[in-house]
Task: inverse folding
């Protein structure tokens, strides 16, 4: 292994060990790694943004696309919040960012997140297959989950059979939502675990164990 | 006070996690991996694209979460570089260019010619708005490639300027919504098929889009990486780490069961 590669890998492993030393106790080594990581991340991002501006935006402006100066200046107003007395300036670019972002999202959201999802849920497959079973389950789960959010009759369910059915539907909706949140949490946990595995693999590889 | 109580339960669990992670890395079990329909769909779609089809790639990786989707991203890159497809790739994460360069050490481009068969564009921020802007007019966002060559001087880019010029967009290593941006700004607005290699966090949110057909196929984190490695017949970190994942799952199930039994016994014993 070349010397520079070795030093790079050794530093990586040292930083990993220092970062995980937090699990035993907070210490200066961990704090150093934390500050270095954040500093490196911010510095690197800044360089990449400046690089994009210098290679793409500025040549476009100088080659005649003078209109690009407008978004550039509006973007610079965001820094107004750093100057006392000019805080109000940053509200204009922020309003544009929120407005444009929301407009763009809504354009696709209505179809992708609402209409297509309703069609897909309503399209129940009544065949004796796993897909068929899944589509029925999804249809029922969507209905009971939505029922959970009918606040108009919550807490004043009728008595007798109707009351029991209302109660059952609400409880079912609650369990479906809990299941969905649990699955979401498990997926987030899985991702973090994969990152942990990748990091430990680097350490194990460095020490020649694999 | 027992030795376990003196060390602390939490630290014992950390140690067990470390042991259950390192052991299968050194001694892999080679547990079988079943390929999911979603991974299969992505593979088949890419495999069946006619020669000369144009594929846009948004490399959305950032270092903090990259290990989760690394295997799948590498396997998809291996697959796509092997096929006679025209590729235009850009980065939507500042770490992207560094991670992509490291990844390409494992991916062969074969006899592809840069500029004619594939082009790499630089990092550009801006999230969903930028994705929409690229779909409308790629020259409005990029004027040069990653090496500073004007894109008008690149042969491949001569007939490419908007989303409709592409047959597929792949969002690789997404952990923060880039695939959903692709669905809204490329699929719904321009009718371009979307595929990707999201990490496990994003995967459940994207499944409804796969069900409706907005996403043609995708992989699921490390496991999806293992599946795609099987499909492209290039075993790598995905299959190896699927073993580790299985080993850790067994540990977590045992810990959850033990924790619940302990809690149940404490309650039934009237302890606090």
Result:
């Amino acid at each position: 292994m070349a010397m520079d590669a070795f030093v790079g890998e050794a530093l990586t492993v040292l930083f990993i060990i220092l970062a995980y030393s937090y699990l035993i106790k907070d210490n200066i080594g961990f704090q150093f790694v934390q500050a270095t990581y954040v500093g490196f991340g911010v510095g690197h991002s800044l360089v990449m943004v400046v690089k994009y501006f210098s290679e793409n935006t500025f040549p476009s402006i100088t080659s005649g696309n003078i209109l690009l100066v407008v978004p550039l200046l509006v973007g610079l107003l965001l820094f107004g919040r750093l100057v006392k007395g000019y805080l109000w300036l940053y509200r204009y670019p922020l309003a544009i960012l929120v407005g444009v972002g929301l407009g763009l999202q809504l354009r696709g959201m209505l179809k992708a997140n609402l209409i297509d999802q309703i069609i897909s849920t309503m399209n129940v497959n009544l065949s004796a297959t796993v897909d068929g079973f899944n589509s029925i389950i999804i249809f029922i789960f969507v209905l009971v989950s939505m029922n959970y959010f009918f606040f108009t009759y919550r807490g004043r369910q009728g008595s007798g059979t109707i009351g029991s059915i209302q109660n059952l539907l609400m409880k079912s909706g609650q369990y479906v939502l809990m299941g969905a949140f649990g699955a979401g949490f498990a997926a987030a946990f899985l991702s973090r675990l994969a990152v942990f595995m990748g990091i430990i693999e680097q350490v194990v590889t460095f020490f020649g164990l694999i | 006070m027992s030795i376990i109580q003196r060390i602390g339960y939490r630290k014992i669990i950390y140690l067990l996690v470390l042991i259950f992670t390192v052991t299968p890395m050194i001694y892999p079990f080679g547990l079988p991996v079943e390929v999911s329909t979603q991974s299969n769909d992505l593979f088949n779609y890419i495999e069946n694209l006619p020669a000369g089809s144009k594929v846009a790639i948004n490399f959305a990786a950032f270092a903090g979460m990259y290990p989760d989707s690394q295997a799948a991203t590498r396997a998809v890159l291996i697959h796509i570089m092997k096929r006679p497809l025209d590729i235009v790739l850009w980065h939507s994460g500042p770490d992207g260019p560094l991670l992509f360069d490291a990844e390409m050490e494992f991916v062969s481009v074969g006899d592809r010619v840069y500029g004619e068969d594939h082009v790499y564009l630089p990092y550009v921020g801006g999230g969903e708005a930028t994705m929409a802007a690229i779909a409308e007019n790629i020259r409005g966002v990029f004027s040069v490639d990653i090496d500073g060559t004007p894109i008008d001087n690149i042969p491949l880019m001569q007939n490419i300027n908007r989303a409709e010029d592409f047959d597929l967009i792949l969002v690789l290593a997404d952990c923060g919504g880039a695939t959903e941006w692709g669905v809204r700004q490329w699929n719904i607005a321009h009718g371009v098929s979307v595929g990707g290699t999201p990490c496990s966090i994003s995967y459940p949110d994207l499944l409804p889009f796969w069900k409706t057909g907005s996403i043609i196929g995708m992989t699921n984190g490390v496991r999806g990486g293992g599946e795609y490695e099987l499909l492209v017949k290039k075993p790598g970190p995905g299959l190896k780490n699927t073993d580790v994942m299985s080993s850790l799952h067994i540990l977590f199930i045992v810990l959850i069961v033990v924790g619940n039994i302990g809690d149940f016994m404490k309650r039934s014993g009237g302890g606090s």
In short: Chain A has a mean pLDDT of 90.
